Amino acid sequence: MTTIALFGNPNTGKTTLFNRLTDSYAYMGNWSGVTVEKKVGAIKNSQLAVVDLPGVYSLNPLTKDEAVATNFLLNEPQDIILNVANAAQLKRNLLLSIELLEFGKPTIIALNMIDSLRKLGISYNLDVLRHAFGCNLVATNARGNKGVQDLKQQFLQAEPDLTPNTFKLEYSSAIQTAIKQAVRGLQRNYNLGEQFASWLAIQFMNANKAVITYAKENNLTPLLNQQPYYEAQHFADKIYQARLEFIEATLKEARQQAQNPRITDITAKIDRVVTNPVLGLPIFAGIFFLMFKLTFDWVGTPLSNILDQFISGPLSSSANQLLTTLGALPFLHSLIVDGIIAGVGGVLVFMPQIFMLFACISILEDSGYMARAALVMDKLMSLVGLNGKAFIPLIIGFGCNVPGIMAARTIEQPKERLITTLISPYMSCSARLPIYSLFVAAFFSKHQAAIVLSLYFLGIAVALVLAKIYQSVFHSEETSVFMIELPEYHMPQANIILQGTWDKGKGFIHKAGTVIFGGTVMIWLLSYLGPSGVATNVGQSFSALIGRSLLPLFHPIGITSWEAISAILTGVLAKEVVGSTLMVLYHTAGRSMLVAALAHLFTPLSAYAFLVFILLYIPCFATIAIIKAETGTWKWAAYSVVVSLLVAYGLAFFIYQGGLLIGLR
Amino acid sequence: MALFVNLVITAAIVATAGWQIVKVLRKSKQGKCAACDYKCAAKKMMVDAKRRPN
């Protein structure tokens, strides 16, 4: 198997190209930091494997995820390097290309987003670039699937005959001499190949942290002994300067007569408004409001109602008839109809809303707005000692907290990373959506989108306040540098939106068949059985006993029904189970009936306090486990559980009691 | 006979549900999300993630 390693700056369309080459679909976003770990795919009908690595600006890693790319070169086999460069920003992109070419493996540079370059009225003579860089160059537009077949052909042709590239940059004589000396030592004492030894030496002189670690691990004395000399001579600066001069000279030579630009810079015009210091935040809030309008008022809920009518109507009654005909005894009958259909079906009716929300997030991602959202939030985040970089994991957490916490790896400062990990669970993930939907339909039918928006922003506000507290407790002095590519705005493409929506949403369907099903049957069992065997009514069941025992604790935050408490407890398994538990315990066949039942047990004020509690209380098991995995200790996972419970209770108490004091109900 | 069949089906459903919960808890301990059985970037991240020094 021949391995092609995909390298490139963030947001150069690497993942899109990877998907086109391998005919697979990997998560894409029109913003940086989407590929945090490497992805592997294969080119059909060939022996070619493609590895997509996280985007990096140079091989000198700043963050954990950037180290993945350099460590891949150091420790894993690769036969061909495919360097994806943004054609419209070649000066910066080619800095990485030089580092890759110096590695010596057969390399192809894909000048991607070539359409953006043409729109700006610029073109380059590819032959001049090929000659200067001693490797093959292909112009591609991965998004429009142009040039990808040519690229595939290059690989298929190159497969049997891999010729190393011939690139060699002339550094100053002092550096050249130092490289030669180091290479001699490395070849003689460590049996390294000349090309790899030369690359190691250059990277070491360039103060590449991953390479320095590698040299220490392997005790490469020809490099380690010379480290003070390299630093004293400022080799790193000189290497950078030599590379930059070479790129500028080459691009000047390759640049062809400018044509008339076909577009004025629409991106810049839009950005003047959406990233405006004053308008940026209201626009961000407005976009979210629109998203919830679509999810709850305009599209999601009407579709959800149709599904609800089907599940609580024809499906339930057919199942009833069938079970009666087959002679099912009452307990089996109850398990299937009151348990599985009511519980699992009761959660599945929220599918249209969840898919609608994911479709909106996919549109925002593909259009290029998400990067602007991070930029807009940078100012707000800096007030609490974080920056826009920390907002990316938080916004991913709106889908699911687990990948959100994993995305915190892109933050280089350990303390900032820990703070981001600890505040991520306060982001309202999509699993909470069914509960919001139930309660806003029951108590706030005219302001559904506004109430949900308030919960999302409350989650952000709590996260920011806690971040500020952690910042002062941890005394974090070093701060991360926030750099984000602002990609051009694209008209979102239907296939990418559909694929993105399905990819995010199918997890919800999968959960219905696994954890929601499991949780529902267990809660049915607890509601069917009691201390004296089969409970004659649900009020004498185990679930009622457990719920009632905790009632005094929840009374001050307005929760007076044991059913709601049982639902809170099962929600730790997965937040969707809260909804299915309520369905089972209230013995309702459909969403509309549950909405009516809830109206008798809560007031609008206690309902809002309940929603706030659900938003902020203990994260689900998967989130707790990922906090442990990312922080490396159960201590922070346990801390997160305790603090979230206290914060949820405190805020729900404040809202409920405060509301009562000012005469709300 | 009818009672026996009903009991067997009920036991099978309850056992399956219990097994699903056990599976979810086991996966959670490994840092995997219950929803992440599909080939998304998040799953790749979690499956391939090796602890790297800070």
From TrEMBL, chain A:
Binding site for GTP: 8-15, 33-37, 52-55, 112-115
GO molecular-function terms, A-Z: ferrous iron transmembrane transporter activity; GTP binding; metal ion binding
UniProt keyword annotations, A-Z: Cell membrane, GTP-binding, Ion transport, Iron, Iron transport, Magnesium, Membrane, Metal-binding, Nucleotide-binding, Transmembrane, Transmembrane helix, Transport
Signal sequence range: none
Pfam families recorded: FeoB_C, FeoB_N, Gate
Transmembrane annotation, as ranges: 278-299, 344-364, 390-411, 423-444, 450-470, 512-530, 608-627, 636-656
Principal subcellular localization: membrane
UniProt KW Ribosomal protein keyword: no
Entries under SUPFAM superfamilies matching the protein: P-loop containing nucleoside triphosphate hydrolases (SSF52540)
Ligand binding (Mg(2+) 2): N19
UniProt membrane topology term: Multi-pass membrane protein
Annotated positions binding Mg(2+) 1: T22
Location of this chain's protein in the cell: Cell membrane
GO CC term (a single one): plasma membrane
Protein family per UniProt: Belongs to the TRAFAC class TrmE-Era-EngA-EngB-Septin-like GTPase superfamily. FeoB GTPase (TC 9.A.8) family.
PANTHER family referenced in this protein's UniProt entry, alphabetically: FE(2+) TRANSPORTER FEOB, FERROUS IRON TRANSPORT PROTEIN B
Role noted for this protein: Probable transporter of a GTP-driven Fe(2+) uptake system.
Name the record gives this protein: Ferrous iron transport protein B
Organism for this UniProt entry: Loigolactobacillus backii
